Structures are given as structure tokens and as C-alpha cells.
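TICKET: design request
STATUS: open
ATTACHED STRUCTURE:
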């Protein structure tokens, strides 16, 4: 997940401060980005948070889960990082977020300069994270489901967490085990659980709202009209939250705090191109396949 530090209510127009500009290779003008000094990067903080996340994920689900879920998160964030470096947009290394829950983490984020050259750069930087993460998450999910075990459905009130399966996860289960009777449950292997978490995090990031990856992609595709798409998506998520027991309530509050809309790039006039629009369509298909309305059922 990439993160630009937004104000509470992002303005529709950004007035860039007077500074030296350089001409980019795509015809737009981008601010001459200041280089981060080594001491400003705080490498120790990134390393500390990573080690704490290794510890938290290992404690709650074991070392196999920790390696797999951190592989997915690392691939996702470095997808953003290298794409940002390609467009000469200053970006930090990933900040991993340890969390003492049965997931062991709340994911990871990077911080980027708000001066994105154009909508093509915005799209490429945003899309690189989910694509890189899914390259790792898909095979791990399939392998993990193969290693999982079919067991009798536990009795009501048993110490059991029932996970809502996204469509892609159900398809993988069907390919491996075929149709499962109602009295049978799938006891997930740690690799499968890490894959499920990777798909869940990817779906959250692809929501076409605010500063999420999906919000960046939404703005790259539709420009100023993306605000209406974001509002509709927010309302639909609120409806799902109300129906399914408020499991996305914290997400809704965070999105309200971040602001539903998206600030413009330095040069919005650069056309996105047919190929990127096609990729954007498939990323929305992936969002539908990875999203689950009720992720957790105790």
C-alpha cells in the first residue's frame, strides 16, 4: 500500500510551491525532487518494524506463516518502491506494521512525494504493488490449499475462526478438492492462511477510494470524475459493513479521515493509454475475485 500524506480534507486543486522544475521524458513538468539524506531515511526504524512484524507473525501463527505473509507484503511494497524510483518520485522503504492479533500484522506502507508527474506514473506506481504481491500470493494460496486438510465441521461454539472465502480462493479449493459437503470444513495450512491474508490485503488496497492503491488507479483512469466512483464505492462498502456486522467499520473511519477524493497529479493532461486502461479493468476484476463481504466469522 502506498501512502501520500494527505490533509484531512484534500483540496481539489494543489498549488505547487515555487521551485526549480525539470522537463520529464513524457512531456510533463515535475518538481525537482529533493534527495533524502541518509540520516533522514531512518533505516533503523524500517528494520525495527520489520523485525517486530517477524516476531508478531511468528508468535501468532508460526514461522512458516511469517515467512509467507511477509514475502507477499514485501513483494507488494517493493513493487511500489521500484516503480516510484523508475519515475524519480522520492519514496521511503516499507514500514511494516506489527499487530498482536491472530493475523500478526496490519500490513505495510510506504510514503511517497505528493508530486506525481502524471496519470501514467500514478497508475504504474499504484498497480505495481498489487501485481507484485499477487505474483507471490496466488501460488502460495494454491500450494497452501493443497497442503490443507479436510476435517468435520466443528460444533457450534467451538474455538474456531471461520474465514470468508473470496471467489478466487473458492475456485482453488474446488480445483484441488472438488465440491465439499456442508459437514466438511477446510483446516488451512499456515501457507494457505498466509495466502488468504495476502488476497484480503490486496482487496482492501484495491478499493477505488482515497489514497489506497485502488484510489490511485481510479484517479489515473477517470481523473476528476474518479471522485464520483470513490463516493459510490464508499457507500457500497458502508452498506456491506452494516449488513455483515461492521467488520469494515475501522476501514470506513480511516477512509473518512484520509478523505474520499484524490489530489491531482502535476500534469493530468497526459493520456493514460489503451493498454493501461485494459490493465486497470483486469485489476478491478481481481478486486472482485479477492474481496469477501464477511472476512471473519467467529
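STATUS: resolved
RESOLUTION: sequence designed for all positions
ATTACHED SEQUENCE:
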Amino acid at each position: 500500500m502506498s501512502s501520500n500524506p494527505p490533509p484531512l480534507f484534500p483540496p481539489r486543486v494543489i498549488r505547487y510551491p515555487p521551485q526549480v522544475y525539470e522537463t520529464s521524458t513524457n512531456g510533463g513538468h515535475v518538481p525537482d525532487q529533493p534527495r533524502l539524506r541518509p540520516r533522514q531515511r531512518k533505516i533503523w526504524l524500517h528494520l525495527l518494524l520489520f523485525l517486530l512484524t517477524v516476531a508478531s507473525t511468528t508468535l501468532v501463527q508460526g514461522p512458516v506463516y511469517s515467512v509467507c505473509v511477509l514475502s507477499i507484503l514485501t513483494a507488494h511494497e517493493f513493487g511500489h518502491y521500484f516503480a516510484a524510483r523508475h519515475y524519480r518520485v522520492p519514496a521511503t522503504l516499507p514500514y511494516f506494521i506489527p499487530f498482536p492479533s491472530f493475523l500478526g500484522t496490519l500490513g505495510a506502507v510506504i510514503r511517497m512525494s505528493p508530486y506525481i508527474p502524471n496519470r501514467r506514473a500514478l497508475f504504474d506506481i499504484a498497480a505495481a504493488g498489487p501485481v507484485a504481491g499477487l505474483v507471490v500470493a496466488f501460488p502460495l494460496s494454491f500450494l497452501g490449499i493443497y497442503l490443507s486438510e479436510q476435517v468435520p465441521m466443528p460444533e457450534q461454539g467451538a474455538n474456531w475462526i471461520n474465514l470468508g472465502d473470496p471467489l478466487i480462493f473458492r475456485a482453488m479449493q474446488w480445483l484441488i478438492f472438488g465440491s465439499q459437503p456442508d459437514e466438511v470444513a477446510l483446516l488451512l495450512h499456515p501457507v494457505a492462511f498466509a495466502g488468504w491474508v495476502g488476497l484480503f490485503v490486496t482487496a482492501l488496497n484495491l478499493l477505488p477510494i482515497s489514497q489506497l492503491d485502488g484510489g490511485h488507479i481510479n484517479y489515473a483512469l477517470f481523473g476528476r470524475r474518479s471522485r464520483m466512483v470513490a463516493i459510490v464505492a464508499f457507500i457500497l462498502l458502508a452498506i456491506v459493513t452494516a449488513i455483515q456486522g461492521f467488520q469494515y467499520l475501522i476501514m470506513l473511519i480511516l477512509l473518512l479521515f484520509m478523505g474520499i477524493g484524490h489530489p491531482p497529479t502535476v500534469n493530468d493532461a497526459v493520456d493514460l493509454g489503451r493498454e493501461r486502461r485494459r490493465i486497470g479493468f483486469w485489476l478491478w476484476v481481481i478486486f472482485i475475485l479477492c474481496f469477501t463481504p464477511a472476512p471473519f466469522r467467529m
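CLOSING REMARK: The radius of gyration is 20 Å. Strands lie at 2-3, 21-23, 29-31, 95-98, 105-111, 149-152, 162-163, 184-187, 296-297.
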